[in-house]
Design brief:
- It is built from five helices and four strands.
- With 138 residues, the protein is an alpha+beta fold.
- It has a domain of 94 residues: 2-Layer Sandwich (Alpha-Beta Plaits), CATH 3.30.70.100.
- The radius of gyration is 18 Å and the shape is globular.
């Protein structure tokens, strides 16, 4: 592992007539599937769904091809993909992801421009801790 994670963003199209069921299925993904994704190198993975069926996925990983291949080797992924295939016109979603090119990275450009840090001195903006910057009195 290189230690340098890369962001990956992809699109798919969910059958617009099945959006509610798709959302329900993803509200409680099988723990075995969650563990498989984690163990295969999928980090910060999230899915975003628009009302017309456009699905946007985002994750970070050291090597997307290796992360996909690791999932392909798991039984739980085969079972999950078989159950999810009817939601997608072309069958298995993991075989039809359209990976997008990243065209802008704010942090990278700020760094290149020498504009690192926060103008207000408040480092909570980039924190992964949701409790930072919140008023504990509320």
């Amino acid at each position: 592992m290189s230690g340098k994670r890369r962001r990956v963003c992809f699109t798919l199209t969910v059958d617009p007539d099945r959006l509610d069921e798709y959302r329900r299925r993803h509200a409680e993904v099988w723990p075995e599937m969650l563990a498989a994704l984690r163990d295969a190198g999928w980090h910060d993975y999230a899915l975003f769904l628009r009302e017309d069926g456009l699905l946007v996925g985002h994750l970070t990983t050291d090597d997307f091809a290796a992360a996909q291949a690791a999932m392909e080797r798991t039984d739980v992924n085969a079972r999950w993909q078989a159950q999810m295939a009817p939601f997608f016109a072309g069958g298995r979603a993991d075989h039809q992801m359209h990976v997008l090119d990243e065209v802008f990275d704010l942090d990278a450009q700020l760094q290149r421009a020498g504009l690192t840090g926060h103008p207000t001195g408040d480092a909570t903006e980039d924190s992964d801790d949701p409790t930072l910057g919140t008023d504990s009195r509320t």
